[in-house]
Write a structure and sequence with these properties.
mainly alpha; 78% helix
Length: 99
């Protein structure tokens, strides 16, 4: 059961990651996209470096792992709301040829 749940989690995570990386190129030019993707990736790496420390600090202060988990869930929810709040331009469908 645990392996099945982990496989399901991996499918969801990798699907979301693939969709997430299409967002910067939707509303930035080609030159701006490269820099913004690098910035987003760097910021994510900083988050993955500091998150365990913050999680441990909150858990130590409250005496419960649940508080750290709630903090992680709140940060993830805030990120999801921020992405849903983006006003993305419509996809270009290419030039239509009329005869």
């Amino acid at each position: 059961m645990a392996v099945g749940c982990l496989a399901f989690l991996a499918v969801g995570y990798l699907s979301a990651t693939a969709l997430f990386w299409t967002i910067p190129s939707r509303f930035l030019s080609e030159n701006e996209s490269a820099g913004s993707i690098a910035f987003i990736s760097s910021f994510g790496q900083i988050g993955s470096l500091t998150a365990p420390t913050i999680f441990g600090f909150v858990a130590a202060q409250t005496g419960s792992l649940a508080a750290g988990s709630y903090l992680v869930a709140a940060v993830l929810a805030a990120g999801g709301v921020a992405i849903l709040g983006l006003k993305l331009p419509p996809l270009s469908r290419g030039a239509h040829v009329t005869a």
